[in-house]
Write a structure and sequence with these properties.
N-terminal domain of MutM-like DNA repair proteins, binds zinc ion, Helicase, Ruva Protein, domain 3
Length: 273
C-alpha cells in the first residue's frame, strides 16, 4: 500500500498538472460514470492530501474523495496519452496533462460534512501544514491512550496519518525505539523524537518519490541516487542480515498483522520508555 509520502506527492504533481483549469472527466470502467458526468468540464480548484486520503476540490463545491488502498494506481501523462484501459475508474484531462486512475478502494463524490467526518478520524499528518507543537501534542495523547505496541500503533491511521509498513520499521530503528514497547510508555522526549523522525523521513520520501531512510555514512555511499534497492533501508525486509550500525542480525515478527523488522541491539527491550 502506498504510504503518505506517495499520496502527498500525487497531490502536488496533480495540482501542478491540471489544477486551476476546466478538466474533462470520464469513467471508462463505468463504476464512476455518474460522478464523472457531474464533474466533467468543471474547474479543478485544488487538491489536498491527508494521510492516505486525497480530496479534489471542484468548482461548484464538489469534493472528489480518493483512497488508493492496496491496488489503486495513478498514471500521469504530460502529452499524447494512450487511450485509457477499460479498467480506468476515472480519467481527468486538462489542457496539457491527463491522469488515469485504476483500482482505487474509494473514488466518490462527497460533501464537506463527509470530508470533515473522514478527517476527524485521522491522526495528525506530518506532511500537512500546521503547528508542529500542536501535532506532536495530538500524537502524544493518541499514544498515551493505547497499550498496544508502538510498532502496531504507528500503523493505526487514527494515531498518526501516512505511516505504512516500511516507514514504521525504519523510523523506529532510526529513533532507537523497541517496537514492542507499549505506546503509552513512550517518554515525552521519545514521542518528540519519533514524530520528528517520521516527519523528516516522509518529507524526504515525498521529494524523492522513493523510500530511502539510510544515512549515506552507514552504507558507505556518496550519493542517495547511487543506492541500490537493498541498500536504501536499515531493517525493512532485512531479516537475518547484519545491522548496518552494529552487525547484529535483524529480527522479524508479526505486528498488527504485518511483518515487522528491528535490530535487537540498537532497539533493546524497553528502549524509548
Ligand atoms: Zn543494530
Amino acid at each position: 500500500m502506498p504510504e503518505g509520502h506517495t499520496i502527498h506527492r500525487h497531490a502536488r504533481r496533480h495540482r501542478a498538472a491540471i489544477a486551476g483549469q476546466p478538466v474533462r472527466t470520464g469513467s471508462p470502467q463505468g463504476r464512476f460514470s455518474a460522478g464523472a458526468k457531474r464533474l466533467d468540464g468543471r474547474v479543478l480548484e485544488g487538491i489536498d492530501a491527508h494521510g492516505k486520503h486525497l480530496f479534489y476540490r471542484w468548482e461548484g463545491g464538489w469534493i472528489l474523495h480518493i483512497h488508493l488502498g492496496l491496488f489503486g494506481k495513478f498514471r500521469l501523462y504530460r502529452s499524447d496519452p494512450p487511450p485509457p484501459s477499460e479498467n480506468a475508474r476515472l480519467t481527468m484531462a486538462g489542457d496539457d496533462a491527463t491522469i488515469y486512475l485504476s483500482g482505487p478502494t474509494m473514488c466518490e463524490l462527497i460533501d464537506p460534512g463527509r470530508e470533515l467526518a473522514i478527517r476527524s478520524r485521522l491522526g495528525p499528518d506530518p506532511l500537512l501544514n500546521g503547528s508542529t507543537a500542536a501535532k506532536i501534542k495530538a500524537f502524544g495523547s493518541n499514544l498515551a491512550r493505547r497499550r498496544i505496541p508502538i510498532g502496531a500503533a504507528l500503523l493505526n491511521q487514527q494515531v498518526i496519518s501516512g505511516i505504512g509498513n516500511v516507514y514504521r520499521a525504519e523510523v523506529l530503528f532510526r529513533a532507537g525505539i523497541d517496537p514492542h514497547l507499549p505506546a503509552n510508555r513512550l517518554s515525552a522526549e521519545t514521542v518528540d523524537r519519533l514524530w520528528r523522525e517520521a516527519a523528516a523521513q516522509l518529507r524526504l520520501g515525498e521529494k524523492a518519490g522513493r523510500i530511502i531512510t539510510v544515512d549515506l555514512s552507514d552504507v558507505d555511499a556518496k550519493r542517495r541516487s547511487d543506492l541500490r534497492r537493498l541498500e536504501r533501508v536499515y531493517v525493512y525486509k532485512r531479516h537475518g542480515e547484519p545491522c548496518r550500525r552494529c552487525a547484529t542480525p535483524i529480527s522479524t515478527t508479526d505486528m498488527a498483522n504485518r511483518r515487522m523488522w528491528w535490530c535487537a541491539t540498537c532497539q533493546p527491550p524497553g528502549a524509548g520508555s
